[in-house]
Amino acid sequence: MAVGIATPLARHRLRLRPPVVSALTWPAPAALALAAPRTPLRDAGIYALQMWTYFAHFDMPDDDPERFLERVRVRYPIAVDRVIGLGETPTVRLQRALARDRDPGPLEFGLSAVHWSWFLVPHGTCAYILLRHRRYFERSAVLMAACFDLGCVVYWLVPTAPPWWASRNGALPAVRRIMAEAGERFWGRLWDPLYSSLQGNPFAAMPSLHFGTSAMAARLLSQIGPGHGAAGWTYALTLGFGLVYLGEHYVIDLIAGLALSEALWRIAPRVGPAARAIGGVIQRLEPRAA
User: N or C: lower Cβ tally within 10 Å for the chain?
Assistant: First the structure.
């Protein structure tokens, strides 16, 4: 478990290759399951270790920026979004209609705040379920982690540039990165250190895990009741509009993220027995609580 935590922190200094990082980090969640008796805190720790492993793999493709840039796809989402937007990408249409050339206003600050809050929503949803509706937690944590992990696989295989990057490099008409403009105005000098500490792989646009994991959070909340589900979907749809308008994602990125979360939700009952069998093997080796 300690090796799994330390490896992503030391991989640059030790010049570890991605397969080595994977081999040393992936066992960490199972190691915690075998090291401590089952408690809510331990279960939260397993989920946190899983996400720590995800983040290490999310960040690794950008270790060699020049080589990575050679693999980045720019034009295919533009072509698809132009079909969706009837000749023009929805991002360009929205910014032309709503933003024009004015400074960020209440709409832009509000949508940027929704965007920033995403860092808390998927994991906050799982934490809420763990604390208040524990019977749903195991399934919820597995589905949320699977959504992140499978999206990360696509980021490795098909790195895709977001609209704001495509615009800066001449592949799109002028697309503003409104979220960054709003961040600079709202946070002032704090913006650069805040943003740089959270920024990872810049070419993780397809699928949109911002939208996919928010849709998964809405699905998980719907297990609890219609009111919870309505709140989750309201957030997800607001975020989806903001991601397109702010220049962070194409519509096709959102569709792919939604398709990923929905596919996982629908196949979960079919793979549930196999997953429970694997989990049962680990559980038989877990230390028992006093």
Answer: C
CB 76 within 8 A of CB 41: no
**Among 54, 236, 71, 76, which residue's Cα sits nearest to residue 147?**
54
Q: Tell me the pTM.
A: 0.91
Bridge partners for 72 per DSSP = none
- How far apart are alpha carbons 43 and 15 in whole angstroms? 32
pLDDT in tens, 170-201: 899 889 999 999 998 888 888 877 777 666 68
Annotated domain spans of the chain: 72-271
State the average pLDDT over residues 219-236: 96
Is residue 282 a contact partner of residue 33, using CB atoms and an 8 Å limit? Answer: yes
Q: What are phi and psi of 157, to 5 degrees?
A: -80, -40
User: Both tokens of residue 54?
Assistant: 């995800």
What residues contact residue 89 under an 8 Å CB cut-off, 6+ apart? 78, 81, 82, 163, 172, 250, 251
Q: Residue 171 and residue 265: Cα distance in Å, rounded? A: 35
The answer to whether 248 and 112 have CB atoms below 8 angstroms apart is no
